[in-house]
Automatic annotation (TrEMBL):
PPR repeats lie at residues 41-75, 103-133, 135-169, 197-227, 228-262, 290-324, 352-386, 414-448, 484-514, 515-549. This is Pentacotripeptide-repeat region of PRORP domain-containing protein. The keyword Transit peptide applies. SUPFAM superfamilies: TPR-like. PANTHER family: PENTATRICOPEPTIDE REPEAT-CONTAINING PROTEIN. PROSITE patterns: PPR (PS51375). Keywords: Repeat, Transit peptide. Gene3D superfamilies: Tetratricopeptide repeat domain. Pfam families: E_motif (PF20431), PPR (PF01535), PPR_1 (PF12854), PPR_2 (PF13041).
Amino acid sequence: MAAAKVTASAVFRTNQEIKLLARSGRMAAARRLFEEMPRRNVVSYNVMISALARSGRLAEARRLFEEMPRRNLVSWNTMMAACSQHGRVEDARELFDAMPALDEFSWTIMVSCYAQAGELALAREVLDRMPGEKCVACYNTMISGYAKNGRFDDAVTLLREMPTPHLVSWNSVLVGLIRNEDISRSVQFFNKMPEKDLVSWNLMLEGYVRAGDLELANAFFARIPSPNVISWVKLLNGYCRAGRMGEARELFDRMPERNVVSWNVLLAGYVQLSHMEEAYKVFMEMPDKNAISWTTMVSGYVRAGKLQEAKDVLSKMPSDSVAAKTALMHGYLQSNLIDDARQVFDGIGVRDAVCWNTMISGYVKCGMLDEAMVLFQQMPNKDMVSWNTMIAGYAQDGQIRKAASIFRKMNRRNTVSWNSIISGFVQNGLFVEALQHFVLMRRDAKSADWSTYACCLSACANLAALHLGRQFHSLLVRNGFISDSFPGNALISAYAKCGRILEARQVFDEMVGQDIVSWNALIDGYASNGNGAEAIAVFREMEANGVRPDEITLVGVLSACSHAGIIDEGLHFFSSMIKLHSLKPVAEHYACMVDLLGRAGRLREAFELVQGMQTQPNAGVWGALLGACHVHKNHEIAWLAAEKLFELEPRKTSNYVLLSNISVEAGKWDDADKVRFLMKERCVYKPPGLAGST
DNA sequence: TATGCGTAGT
C-alpha cells in the first residue's frame, strides 16, 4: 500500500517534470524522461502527446495516442487540440465524431479548429449544436473567430446574445478590430467596454502602434494603470519597426523588467535595418537566448547577404532549431545555391511545414519542377501553402494541365489556391477557363481579393469581353477594391483592350494611387487603339507629373509613334531612351523601331538598326522587318529577314507563306519555288483554306 | 495533486 503511494507520487512528479522540460523547449530531455519511466499513467501519455504536438511532432503524438493502453476524455481532447494546432481540420473532426463522450472542452476545440481554418459557418454550426448551457470559452472562441476574420457585426451580435459575457469576450472583439487596423472603431469600442484589464489596455496600445503614431502611442502608454513587460514590448516594437533604434534602445534601457522577448524585439530591430554589428553586440549581451533569438541572427545575416556568418552563428547554436536551419536554407536558395540548401534540408531531423515548403518553393523558383514534385509527394502533412506552391509553379512553367490536376486533387482550397489556378489559366492564354474558375470559386464561397479581380479583368481584356469587364468593375466597386492600384490597372487595360479608351481614362482619373503600371496601361491603351498622338500626350503628362518611365512605357510610346506614323519623334524617343532615361532597349523596342521605319519605307535603315543591335534580335524583330518588306515590296531584304526567321521559328507556316507571296509579287518565280521546296523539306504545310499571308 | 478550450509580446 505504502509502495503504491510512493509510485503514484513519483509518477506525478515525473509528469510535472516532463511538462516543464517540454515548455522550456527541451524536447529531447522530456522524451527521454518519458521513455525511462518505470510506470506511466494516462496523464503521462496526455502530457507527452501535448508536448509532442506543441513542438511540431504531430505524427509522433498521433502514434502515442494510438498506442496508449487506456484513454480518458482528456486524451481525446488533447489529440483533437493537436490536430487543430496543425490545421488538420478533417482529422480533428474525425476524432470529435468518434469520441465516446464530449465535454465542453471538446466542443470548444472543435469550434476553435474550424474558426482558425476560416470555416466560420462550420464553427457556428458546432456552437449551435452544443447541448445545454454553452460555456463562456466556447462563445469566446466563436467571437474571436468572427473578429479575426473581420466580421465585427457578427462578433458583437454574438457577444450581446450570450448570457454572461466575460471580459475575455470583449477583448476577443477588440483584438479583431486592432488586427484589422480600424483605429477609430477600436477606440470607440475600447471606450465603451464595461470593464478593462491589462490585456485590453495592451491591445489598444498595439492599435496606436499599428497606426504608426508613436507619439500618440507613447501618450497612451503613460495612461496604462500598471504596464507590464508586454506593454513595454509593444511600444518597443513600434520604435523598432519605425527604424528609430536610438529611441528604441533608450526605451529598452528604461524598462523595469526585461525578458528574452524584449531582447529579441530589440535584436530584430537592428536586424531589420541590417545593422549586423549592433545586432551582434546585443546578441552577445543577452542573458539568455531562445530559438527565436538564434533564428533572428541567422536570418539577419542572410538578409545582409552574409551567408558564411549565418552558417557560423548556426553552428554555435547549442540545441536544434528547424526555424534557424530553415532561415539558412532560405539564404542558400536566394543565392541559387540549391545543393547547399538541400544539404541543410537533409540535415534537419524533424521538419515542419515551413521547412518543406521553403525547399519546395526553392526548387520551383529555379525551374526544377521534377525535384519539387518529388519532395511534395514525400511531404507527410502538406498544408495549403505546399499545394498552392506546386500549382503556381506548374502554371508559371507553362504546364497548366499539371497545375489544374493538382488543383483538382485538393480537399480544401483557400483564396490563394483559387488565385493561383485562375492566374495560371490567364498566363497560359486560357481566358475562358480562368473566368469559369472564378464562377466555381464563388460557388466554393471563397472570397475574391484584388489579385482575383486583376486576373479576371486581364482575362476579360484578352477576350475583349466588355460586358464581363463592366460586371467585374461593379464587383470591384461593391467590394471596396477600387482604390487599390493593382486591380485598377487591370481595369484600365481591360477597358483599353475592349476599345473603350474613354472609360479607361475615367478609371485612371478616379484612381487614388496611380503608379507606373497605370500610366503604362493608359499609354498602351491609346497606342493600340490607334490614337498615337494622345498616347504621346499622356506620356508628356506623365513626365510632367515627375513619374520616371520604364522599359514598358517606351514600348507603348514607340508603338504609338509607329501607329501614328510620327517618324522623327519616334527616333527622338528611341535615342532619348538611352541618353535621358538610361533605359536599355530590348528586342520589343527594336521591333517597334523596325515597324516605325518600315512603315515609312525606310527598310535599309531598319535593317541596319537590327544589325547593330546589342542583343540577339528575336522573331518579333525579324517578323516586323519581313512584314514591312511585304508592304513596300522589298524582295531583297525580305529574304535576309526570312532566313533569320526560319532559324528561329522553323515550323511557323505564316513566315513561309509571306516570303512566297513577296517573291511572287516581285515576279521572282524561282524564289517562290525555293520557298515551297523549303516547306516540303521541313514538313511545314500551309493549312487548307488559308490563302495569302496570315 | 496533474493533462485538454477562449483575450495581449519576438
